[in-house]
Design brief:
With about 325 residues, this protein is α/β, with parallel strands linked by helices. It folds into two domains: about 170 residues, Response regulator (Rossmann fold, 3-Layer(aba) Sandwich), CATH 3.40.50.2300; about 130 residues, Rossmann fold. About 45% of the residues lie in helices and about 20% in strands. The strands form three sheets. It has a seven-stranded parallel β-sheet with strand order 1-12-6-5-4-2-3, with helices on both faces. It is elongated, with a radius of gyration of 20 Å.
Amino acid sequence: MKRTTAGILAVCASLALAGCDSKPPITSVAKPAAAPAAAAPAATRKVALVMKTLTNPFFVEMEKGARRAEKEFGIELLVRTAAQETSIDQQIGIVDGLIGEKVDAIVIAPGDSQRLVPVLKKAADAGVKLVNIDNRLDPSALQQAGLARVPFISVDNGAAAYRSAKFIADTVTVPTQAAILEGIASADNARQRKAGAERAFAENKLIKVVASESANWRIDEGYAATRKMFAAHPDIRLLFAANDMMALGALQYLKEANRSNVKVASYDALDEAVKEVAAGRLMVTVDQQAAEQGYQGVATALRLLGGAAVPDELLIDVRLVTAPAKS
C-alpha cells in the first residue's frame, strides 16, 4: 500500500507541473472567434478569471486561453484559484475579495453549481459583469437569487460523455458489466457526464452498469473508488471516468491489479491521458478545448462591458482522442 500511495502522489505531482423562457439561439464555436473590444479603453478593464484549481492541467490550459485574450485585447487579467476542486468555501471567498478589488468582470468556472450563486449575486449587485464557464450554475438557484441571466460557455457535457462511453460500448458483443467514476455530485457538468455515459451504456442491451461512484475529479479518489468497485464487482470490463484525473487513478489501480482486460473511456484530453491513449491503456478521451473556453470567457466579458448582446450559451466543439488505427 505504501508503494501504491507513492505512485499516485508521483502522478499527482507530475500533473500539477504540466499543468428561461425566451432565449437567444445557442452558438457553437469550432475555432477561435474574435471579440470586439469594449467601448471604453481596453486598458481600463480589469477582468478576473476564477477557476477551481491549478492542480488539474485542464485549468492550466484554460488560463492559457484567457492569457491569450488578455494579450489580444490589452486588459488586466487577474487569475484566482482555490486549492482543490472541492474547496468551495475558498472559491466563495475569492469572489468576495474580487468585489472589494472592484474588478469590472468575473469569469468563473464554479466548483459548485449552487453554493456560488449568493456571492455572485452580491458581485452583480456591485456592478460586476458575470460570465459562467465550464460548469453551469444552477438555473433555479440563479432565479431564486434574483440574478439576471449569466452567459454560459462550455461544451455539451452530456453529448460528449455519451460519445466517449459509446466508443467502448460499441465494442461489446457479449454480456458485460460496466462502471462509472463520477465527478462532484453537486456540479452540473458531473451530472451531465454521468447521464451521457449511462445513456451510451443503456443503448447496448448486453451492458449492465453495476457500480457508479463519485471520485470528486481526483486521481487518488479515482484510484480508491475503482478499487472499491472492483472488490464488489470483479467482472467489470468497461469503465467510464468523467474526467482524466480520475481515469489516471483508475488506470494505476488496474495496472497494479493486473486487470488489462478492462476498457476505460475518459474525458478532458490532458497530456498524460493522451499518452495513455497512445500506449493503448486508455481507449478514448474527450478534448473539450479548455483554452478556448478561457479565451471565449474573457471575450464575452468584454462584450458585456461594451454593452453588446451575447448569447445565453456558447458551446465549444469537442473531439474524441483515440489511438491511430493500426495499418
